[in-house]
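2.7 Reproducibility. Because tokenized structures are sensitive to small changes in the input, we list the exact sequence used for Condensin-2 complex subunit D3, including any N-terminal residues retained from the expression construct. No trimming or masking was applied before prediction.
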Amino acid sequence: MDDLDAEEANQPLSALLSDLQLLASISGGTASSSDPPPLSDSLLSSLYSHLSTSNGPSTLVSRLSSIDLSLSSLLRHLSTSIDSTSVRPSLLAAVSYLSLLLSPSSPLVSLFSPLHFLFILRSLRRSLKNQATSPPDNTKHKPKTKSNSKSKPTAKFEQNRQPSDTSNLILKVLQLISDLLTRIQLESYNDTRKTLIDSISEIMNSSYYHAVSNSCLQILRIIVSEPGHGNKGEATVEILRSLAPLMLLSVKSPVRVGVIGFVRREIVPFGNEDEGVKKALLSLPRFLANKAPERAEPRAFAVQSILEIAKIFNGEELLGFVDYVVKLANGKPKLRLLAVDLILGLLSFSKESDADNSWRVVCLKALVERCSDTVAGIRARALGNITQVFSEMSERREEIGMEVFTDMVRRRCSDDKAAVRKAALVLLTKAMGLIGTVDVSLLEVLGSACSDPLVSIRKAALLAISEVFRRFSDGNVIREWLQAVPPLIVDNETNIQEECENLFLELVLNRICQFADPRPFGSSTTSDQLFPESLLDLLKGISDGEVAPFIKKICTSLGKKKKLKPFVATSLQNIITASDSLRQAPQGAWWLLAEVSLYTPKAIDWGFLSQHWELLGDAGRKEKVCGDDGEIETVSWARDRVSLLNTISNVSMELPSEPAAELAHSLLSRIEKFNMHLSEVDAHVKSLRTLCKRKAKTTEEGNGLVLKWSQNLVSMATEALNFYLSEVSETRKQGDFATPQSSSRTKGKKTKSPDTMSQAVVAVFTVGSVVIVCPTVNMQGIIPLLHTIITSGSNNEPILRKLSATSASFEVVAPSLYVQSWSTMAKICLVDDKTAKRYIPLFVQELERSNLAALRNNIMVAMADFCVRYTALIDGYIPRITKSLCDPCEVVRRQTFILLSRLLQRDYVKWRGVVFLRFLLSLVDDSEKITHLADFLFSSILKAKAPLLAYNSFIEAIYVLNGYQGQSSSDPANELFAIKGMDERSKSKRMHIYIALLKQMAPEHLLATSAKLCAEILAAACDGLLNIDDTTGQAVLQDALQILACKEMRIQASTTSDTSEMDEEPAADSPAGATSAAALALKGRIITQVAKKNLIQIAIPIFIELKRLLESRNSPLTGCLMDCLRSLLKDYKNEIDEILVADKQLQKELLYDINKYEEAAKAAAKGNKGKNVVEERCKSVLRDASNFKATPPLSAMSLPKVKGYVSGRSGRSGPSHPASVLNSIRRKQSFESDDEH
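Resulting structure tokens (single pass, no recycling of outputs):
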């Protein structure tokens, strides 16, 4: 039975031997063959199955002699099979080859062939490559997305725990190679060792399976640890160089972690024994730094790997690496960016790891220095990293120098790149505890950042300036905070609005509540002693005219959300009550109480209101008898009474019936006397209306009451005004044309007193307030009187005075009455369209002719309201209304700009005609507030609403700003908006406007604008269409040349990304990031090529002809033209010979200019020359270069060589005309507009 089993067991071996014997007979037995045939797939499978048994290799080797087949011959056959392209047979042959080679009876040293070993390594690489391109079904994974790669970084390896048959064969080959390396020495085969190491790293990078990576690392460990494989230092260098790409993998891969662990666990111990290994380890982080990628995410993994290796350093080794990193911080941009991240990682090392921590100060100084880097992305990254190690900064503030640090942060907060500004603001928010004091300049920078066009910048600035307010409560901080933060309540971003509300609640209302209980002082206490100075500054700033509208919106929003607590109103009442002894509450307290009381009516005590109504009323009447100072106090008391009336209106529903009726009667009585301050009238009327409507039983009853007393007030006002006009008429008849004073003649005749005129002014103002609250009131009696007053201003001509002898010019006699009459007439027009049609032309006329700034301002406000109510009527007057943008009064100009901007945003006014051109002048207004508003309008609102407007109107803007009248379409009215002159101030203003427009254009629009400048201005000068003998014509031509030469007009070769946002780009390995980057790169290359082609084909011929024309007239603009050409061609210095082939003399001049400019720039950079060295060296060099040789005419020149241009000229019969040449190349670029122009 045992014999039968043995016979069955030997049957496969016998069959295998038979097949091998057949193979031997075919190949000539043991005779060597130059190209032995490979084994068949079935034979390889049988051989692999037999060799997989325990004694299979030994048995087969011992039986080979019986079939007359040597082991070396079999190995040569196997090597041929290994080199086949089929994956599985190749791996089977490799396993069989190594199994036979490692057989105990095999002469390993004599049979080992480096060439066959290389075949095995190539088979492994080929099999893994095929496996990577077409993984098995159980290893397929979904395409990696951004979210998937972040949430499951090791999913690729976790989903493939079950190796396939091919993977098992690969693993078997690697294990056999490990056994082989323990029995042979590669010391004599350095090339084989290097190839083995490179193959192992490639296998690890391509493998899906963790077991394969472990086997590869085991092979590398044997190479380093086992003797006989060559110099350890050299082997380590080869291993680390091959593993470097794995350490720099851009994903969270177990392979990367395993490789770093292998280096620290297996190679580092040998560094203590071998100097070569130690040098290799010390050089590894530097090698990785030089190979680190530039993009953000891969760079982060590279930094992590470098720091993991650097953690093994100590003492001098660490100091050497720190010194290397600091040197990197002064290298190329890519290395500087890497150094910034490495410094952050080094500073995170434990302080106990090294006794000498002086290198930390060096790192911090290098990091602070990088905050002023020339590359915006590096500046932003350095600022962000400082924020993360700010605790380290605070500990070493003296060594670093806080003054330098604070100045740096302030400059970065106003950086021209958004990422830098945001990083600086975030750093400043955290650095408030470190900065001792905050100067005014830093506050202004923070305030400006709150109105930044970018949402992220506004958020960061909002938090930064609020952190300053928390820590410092002086007057400057409070003032700047109130000017910057409350306006954000009207921001388009909801999150910013909510943050603004929360900060106002925390920093204003809660702070007021904290100081609700005043300090106990005597009766002679002043307001400064009774309340903290910060509280007084805060309340005063809240009531400021520019801030109050935004505070009102904030209170309204908080009230609707029920975030205003009754304790706020109670605290304000306590503050006002405590200041009764001072006879006046802190400025702003009453105003804030009026806003809060609308949403906390139950918290307001009627006794408190009644007491202060009597107190303020009596005090107000007493103060009116005072002098000038008393009049100022009267205004303050009137303001408080207005706020008190608003408070009463807000809580009228909570008032008892009898006190409410008494209060309404008192209000009506005060209104009928027409002796109040104008600021009180409107509040009295609105409060009376509110009391009547809320206390009436029905709506009809309330409306009837309002109409009744409104009609009575209008009648009384008509009588008062008629009485005053009668007095004026009577006085005029008597020959007294001056305004009567209090000491007027009283010779038995009736005279008018100042009280009569002031009563008439209040009466007219009251009529306007009544019209707004009751539009149905009859105004037929008051309108003729108002007409008499507002038309009296035009009766200044001698003939008109004769025709209207009984009329007086109220603009001179009673300016206040004249102004209020126009305002009241405007309110009447708002509620009566028939009256509006009659009087709107008069409003426009008065806006242009009036000398009263207050009247022009009021009419401008009325015209804005008319534009909303009667858009069609006003549309024809828009060109005349926009003249107010050049009003001599700053208040009128700013009011006009704000009102028209709002109308333009709401599409009541269109960006067409002269509107856009006249708005340009606001960019260079003498008022900083107006220029700030204009910058925001053009850079944010207009860029999004009408992106093509700047491009479409650019050429026309050049003519209008220079006041050039040569165009048939020029409007004489535009002379008012011209900035004429060749002086530096005028030119700088115009260039500021041009640059602001160029910044709004896309690259393709810049290219088209350049072509239009050449065709419509430069070529027009050549053709004589632009008169360059005229001063304005010269200014137009000079502006065009300076625009073409400015850096904003230049189209960069790479428009794919902005270095300021280099860390915010999409990952390059993501589909979206790769597609976007490729599209932008393609677009940038196309635009750059088109720009160069246009320069050669369109611009250069025009420049050549223009230069000839200017030289013939000895024009001073020749130097400007040469500067423009130098700027345009400095990037094509090596191609000037080809570009200017038509004018050899111009080639010499430009090359000379460019060389001199570069030499002067280098000398200036080294500090060897003075401040104006570049300008001095770059003056006109025509005399040196050309020796007064004139540029030949265009007709004598050949066309420049352009790639793709095929000349069809075989000769010339005669000269061509320059005009025809220019007309042939003058092509206007057209873009579809949105009807902005």
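The CA atoms of residues 526 and 819 lie 39 Å apart.
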